[in-house]
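Quick bug: Diaminobutyrate--2-oxoglutarate transaminase output formatted oddly.
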Amino acid sequence: MTVFEDLESQVRSYCRNWPVVFDTAKGSRLTDVDGHSYLDFFGGAGALNYGHNPEVLKKPLIEYLTRDGITHGLDMYTSAKGEFLTTFEDVILKPRGLEYKVQFPGPTGANAVESALKLARKISGREALINFTNAFHGMTLGALSVTGNSMKRGGAGIPLVHSTPMPFDNYFDGKMPDFLWFEKVLDDTGSSLNEPAAVIVETVQGEGGLNPARIEWLQGLRDLCTRKGILMIVDDVQMGCGRTGPFFSFEIAGIEPDIVTISKSISGYGLPMALVLIKPEYDQWGPGEHNGTFRGNNPAFVTATHTLRNWWTDDTLEKETLRKGEKVEEAFNKIIGDNQGTEMFTKGRGMARGIQFEGEGFAEKVASKAFEQRLLLETAGPNDEVLKLLAPLTTTDDELDEGLAIIGESVKTVIGS
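Here's what came back:
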């Protein structure tokens, strides 16, 4: 690993927790150069909802490349893009009664967020934005301005302005009515709150600690935005593409955001790709007003098309994801019941699940112990207090049982030490 330490920037992070050289991957497992197999409950931070190298995607991808299909296309018309758009409309949008225009920004979640924020300001003519406590939306300057984590914000090196944080669901442990503060300052001409262009929200805060918003809270936010003439942006970069069960994480609340950002698992194969979904009346971009050299990643369009056809033409995956999520929650509750040395509780929704530890450093210690048994897990939350599970949705029950057993053993070791 000398070459990495000698040449790669100090900014590297995940490799510090998992100091091995990985070589191959299949399904829910990675293999290092020494032939050791690791169970992957990290899932590319949510970019591998369908596992590593799924055959149903690899075959059409290879066929596309071997026939010299276009790889780089900016925003030119290509057959791969056209096939994706048609499939996305037929499989995802129409069955849900949703009508959105599709923007291809740069192929990252942060760029999708930047696009959404810029468009909201253009539509409304306002500069101010509303974000929520413990939110995470990306590492570029606009996305950081609506992100909560102080360490990440500190890396900007300049003041991050034009955004005001509001309390996310249950921030006050139920001691304050939903949106009491938000609506009060909106209506108070003496509050000094600038009239906002948009609200940006995650239905489950991933990096913020797997904090799920209640259905009624999301519905209340939608209603408030409608009444006050504020655009609602749902950041579905990590929780979309089936992570919480349905394809869009906001479906459970029966709401329709004005703008939606999608990335991570939209390609299905881990290839860079992002979408911004825009209600037709708000598609007010001028040609090239937001662009990027790699917004036309055609191999990603190919795998995305086959992902939708293979997993989203019925509700089988959605039901399996919800079932597996309940299985994980049940196992986590048993782990908590079996280890009374520190306060813990479960968090999350669907197959985005975690255990929050009240003891300092416990989550990181558990993740470290799990890695010793060749299980990959990350931590989340403002103080890395949450052990975070983002296993591929296609992880088998046997693999789930194996990983959950390792987590149980790791918690027992850490709590008992």
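Actually, after a second look the formatting is fine. The chain has a mean pLDDT of 96. Closing.
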